[in-house]
């Protein structure tokens, strides 16, 4: 009995020792992996150009530090709410230049349409590229009404000389990117001319509805600046996100 007891104790000690050595090996391996790799943001699926990126579209993956580039994103929240400027492949590291923060490009299933000047009754002089606007139908026998339930994105606003309306000394978009609200207001106040050409990002259905409504000239558009514009420039913090 005593010999059997000693045998079991020896086996238990050997097993505990083996578990300890294995655990130490795994810990050292994880530490070595963490030192040699870095967590980068990758898409979980293919994302088309112009599509808005959501939290469930992204995940973190470990990448060898030797392969890391400075424009790779480390934080998922830096990309959430932004739009893909180019198609994003599943599993490839997400690069900052592939994201469109200001949404000037048409979104998923959208195109950029030039709105004929004859279609417009009035337009808010303060709108700029990247803003959100509300469209209203005015005129005809019926009552004026809101044309679409949601705001639409202004792709560009230009003068009669085909020059983008902005402050030539300080762009309002650059001011927003720097978080300089005072500079943004100054840029809008000191714009370089009246609006003559308006381009909007619309779906095909929205454009057809607008065109059919305004083509005979009885009903025209009222283009109003939407305060929702500021919600598009919230931005997210940067930095390396912790991986589980």
From TrEMBL:
Keywords: Cell projection, Cilium, Flagellum. Pfam families: SAF. Residues 38-100 form the SAF domain. SMART domains: SAF (SM00858). InterPro entries: SAF (IPR013974). This is Flagellar biosynthesis protein FlgA. It comes from Paenibacillus oryzae. The lineage of its organism: Bacteria, Bacillati, Bacillota, Bacilli, Bacillales.
């Amino acid at each position: 009995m005593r010999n059997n007891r000693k045998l079991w104790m020896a086996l238990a000690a050997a097993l505990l020792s083996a578990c300890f050595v294995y655990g130490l090996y795994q810990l050292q391996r994880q530490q070595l992996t963490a030192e040699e790799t870095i967590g980068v943001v990758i898409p979980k699926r293919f994302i088309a150009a112009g599509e808005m990126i959501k939290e469930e579209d992204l995940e973190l993956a470990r990448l060898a530090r030797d392969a890391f580039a400075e424009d790779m994103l480390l934080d998922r929240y830096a990309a959430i709410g932004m739009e893909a400027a180019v198609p994003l492949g599943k599993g490839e590291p997400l690069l900052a230049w592939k994201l469109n923060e200001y949404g000037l490009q048409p979104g998923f299933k959208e195109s950029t349409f030039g709105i004929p000047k004859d279609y417009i009754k009035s337009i808010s002089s303060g709108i700029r590229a990247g803003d959100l606007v509300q469209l209203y139908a005015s005129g005809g026998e019926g009552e004026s009404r809101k044309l679409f339930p949601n705001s639409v994105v202004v792709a560009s606003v230009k003068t009669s000389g085909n020059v983008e309306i902005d402050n030539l000394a300080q762009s309002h978009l650059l001011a927003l990117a720097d978080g300089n609200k005072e500079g943004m207001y100054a840029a809008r106040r000191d714009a370089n001319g009246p609006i003559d050409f308006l381009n909007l990002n619309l779906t095909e259905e929205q454009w057809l509805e607008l065109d059919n409504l305004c083509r005979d000239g009885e009903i025209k558009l009222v283009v109003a600046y939407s305060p929702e514009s500021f919600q598009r420039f919230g931005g997210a913090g940067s930095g390396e996100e912790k991986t589980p």
